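ARCHIVE CARD
CATEGORY: sequence design from structure
SOURCE FIELD: tokenized fold
FIELD CONTENT:
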């Protein structure tokens, strides 16, 4: 009597490009506003898909890549200011 062997394969889910983008981080430093009079002026608040990020100006911060892209597209960040 022949027995049938079953092969069980483990399939690993490949991370999507979107997962990779959100897990990739970049260190940036936003310039201090020249006319900042209140403490609220010391922050930028980019929003992506309903989630708002609070980024303090004048200090190096790690942000997800999509947040960096939003800051670039809106003109709040100059690529020459990347902190290495």
């Amino acid at each position: 009597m022949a027995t049938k062997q079953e092969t069980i394969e483990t399939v690993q889910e490949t991370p999507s490009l979107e997962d990779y983008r959100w897990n990739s981080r970049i260190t940036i430093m936003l310039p201090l506003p020249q006319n900042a009079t209140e403490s609220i002026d010391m922050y930028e608040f980019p929003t992506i898909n309903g989630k708002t990020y609070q980024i303090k100006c004048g200090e190096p911060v790690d942000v997800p890549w999509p947040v960096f892209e939003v800051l670039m597209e809106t003109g709040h960040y100059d690529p020459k200011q990347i902190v290495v």
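CARD ANNOTATION: The mean pLDDT is 79. Residues 47 and 53 are 6 Å apart (CA to CA).
SHELF: design records, drawer C
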